[in-house]
Structure formats: C-alpha cells, structure tokens
Amino acid sequence: MAIFKVFGLIAVFSIFDLVLGGSPLSGYVEIISRKTGKKVGVENIDDETVFLYAKDNLTLTTWKVVPTCFSGESTRAGYWIRLKDHEKWRWNHRWGCRFTNTSIIAYKDGKDTNENNYFYYDITTGEIEVCKKNFLYVDPSDCSMKSLDVDKDKKDDRKFSVRVVKLIPAAEIPDCWK
C-alpha cells in the first residue's frame, strides 16, 4: 500500500490501483525494505555503475517511476524506474537475467536498455520482481540489493513497500499508455 497527503487528507492506495487519465500511476516514490525499514537508494552517482542499497544515510533515495511501453506480461503493468533528478540513471540487473543472487545496480542510459530496466511490484505480496522470476532482497552483510530466484527461501527479505512522494501529471506519461 502507498500513502500520501493531498489537501490535508490522507489517501491510501495500492501503486497499481490509482489511474490518472486512463493511465497507470506515474510519480516519484520511495522504496522501503519491509524487513529493515530502510529506504532503497544509492550513495553517489560518480561511477559508471552504482550499487543499490537499503540502509540509512543514503544520498539518493527518491525514484521516478513511469509506465513503460514494453511489457511481456499483459496482466501486470511494467514501470521504468530512474533516480529523481538524475534522469540518465536507470535501475538495472547487473548481468541481465542470466544469473541469480547477483547485485542490483544502476546503469547510465545506453548500457542496457532492454526489459531489465523495469520492475514489477506485486501489491499482494509486496515483492519487486526483476527478470521474470527473480526478486529483490537485501543482503544482510552489507545491506546491498541482490536478485534472488523465486524458488529460494528468502520470503521475508524480499518484501518492499512503495511510498508515493509526488504524482507526475498524466501529460508526462508515455503516449502508448494514453
């Protein structure tokens, strides 16, 4: 569930229940590990590749989420996710979808621009899925984000909440969703 405040009222909704002008949700969000309560973010963007973490005192923790026009699953909406104020950085899986239990990092645009650039957020389980059947979880040794095959038993580690910070006007949503 996501919570935000509009004109003094608190509204609670799931990230996929809200529709703007016939389009899926588009906005700035924070992603929070349910197990640790830490926000998912990065420490800096100085390198070509930036590792994602779920821990305190991260420099950048707000993400821009926009529906993507590419989705291999007709029953779920796909979302691009980029660092707010740093539009050239996308959330990506380090080795595509070939390996599991690998770190999740952000890439600059042009590095890997296929389906790995979006995620699915399951409102029922609170899990974020990448690469079809791989889920994100927080490695307790360093709070880094990892990809994990769904068959492995880390259910409590891979649940996240998505909190909306600010909605993006429907006019900025890609044409294919209008």
Return the CATH class: Mainly Beta
The proportion of residues forming helix, as a percent range, comes to under 10%
Q: Average pLDDT value?
A: 70
- Report the portion of residues in β strands: 35-45%
C-alpha Rg (nearest Å): 15 Å
Major beta sheet summary? 11 strands, antiparallel
**Could you tell me the number of beta strands?**
17
Q: What would you call the structural class?
A: mainly beta
Distance between the termini: 24 Å
The ordered string of helix (H) and strand (E) elements is EEEEEEEEEEEEEEEEE
Shape: globular
What's the structural domain tally? 1
Signal peptide: 1-21
Keywords: Signal
Layout: helices, strands, pairs:
Layout: E1 2-6, E2 9-13, E3 19-20, E4 23-24, E5 27-33, E6 40-41, E7 49-51, E8 53-54, E9 63-67, E10 79-83, E11 86-93, E12 104-108, E13 118-122, E14 127-130, E15 134-139, E16 144-149, E17 160-167
Antiparallel strand pairs: 1-2, 3-4, 5-9, 5-17, 6-8, 7-12, 9-10, 10-11, 10-13, 11-12, 13-14, 14-15, 15-16
Signal peptide: 1-21
Keywords: Signal
